[in-house]
UniProtKB/TrEMBL annotation:
Enoyl reductase (ER) domain span: 22-344
Family under the similarity heading: Belongs to the zinc-containing alcohol dehydrogenase family. Quinone oxidoreductase subfamily.
UniProt keyword Metal-binding present: yes
UniProt xrefs under Pfam families: ADH_N, ADH_zinc_N_2
Main location group: cytoplasm
Keywords: Cytoplasm, Metal-binding, NADP, Oxidoreductase, RNA-binding, Zinc
Protein name: Zinc-type alcohol dehydrogenase-like protein
UniProt-listed PROSITE patterns: QOR_ZETA_CRYSTAL
InterPro entries: ADH-like_N (IPR013154), ADH_Zn_typ-1 (IPR014182), ER (IPR020843), GroES-like_sf (IPR011032), NAD(P)-bd_dom_sf (IPR036291), Quin_OxRdtase/zeta-crystal_CS (IPR002364), Zinc-ADH_QOR/CCCR (IPR051603)
Oligomeric form and interacting partners: Homotetramer.
SMART domains: PKS_ER
Species: Paenibacillus chondroitinus
Amino acid sequence: MSILSSQETMKAVGLFRYLPIEHPESLINVEIEKPVPAGKDLLIKVKAISVNPVDTKVRAPKEKREDAPRVLGWDVAGIVEQIGPDCTLFKPGDEVYYAGSITRPGGNSQYHLVDERIAGRKPKSLNFADAAALPLTAITAWEGLYERLGVSRNKEDNVGKTVLIIGAAGGVGSIATQLAKLAGLTVIGTASRPESVQWAQQMGADHIINHYDAFLPQLTALGLTEVDYIFCLNSTAEHWQNMADAIAPQGKICSIVETSQTLNMNLLKNKSVTFAWEFMFTRAMFQTSDMIEQHNLLNEVAELVDNGLLSATVTQRLTPIDAANLRKAHAMLEEGHTIGKIILEHFA
């Protein structure tokens, strides 16, 4: 389908209707206007993208219809083609990676606009495909651990401290496990299948428990009576009682998964437990004064990768970037058994 214009156009994958992923029009190939950068925006030539649960949640069936194609996709690696007049951090030709903003068109297109304050220098040691798998999960894991949970990055501060990562084999869990180990924490990850257990251990988890069973008895069997931190990357409501039981007095819990159910916050009261949400789009969505912290942390992540301290988490690659492959990627995510990240590269 083409959207005709007198301006230069580009290929993209978008939607007009919010449909089940099995429907051939749930994601379609479109042609749309190539954007022009203004202000602090960079125009990026997209080389590779990856998919995340947020993509499937935004695309999920609903009655709403779009007049113009809505483009999803919040993980991009590419090359700066043009810069806006207020840009100071990058120049044309620079290789970047980023997750973008949920309130703007996504990156499932040949060219994409992103505010330079939320883009980072692509790790030199990674190709575009591997780099595209990192931004959203790295930002989420970094902000969740270091900012929301307040974990110190100084190993000496974390001697004897523990973190429970619920969903350790997923995209965010894969990065969170590595960052937690770099900070000196003992990591207990949750996983339920042999392949996800193996992956979580490969990422650095010290212990594995099953998230379908009660947490505390499993922790007790490991010689642990409680954990200092919990990072919930799976159903918040489903694990709420288990988290309340396992968290240490004055401990901290952070979740990234919204819930339609009412959470009984009283379960945390007697232990004076802190609970925080992490949503990596907050800074871009509200144009916070510290937006540039995402630029800074992505540059730090790139350094960790280039120094061999952080590993890429790609497990599946699809080529080219088109509607058929994106529908396939969304379907895999919706099955709920994805390990690591799925990436797509090269426009047809």
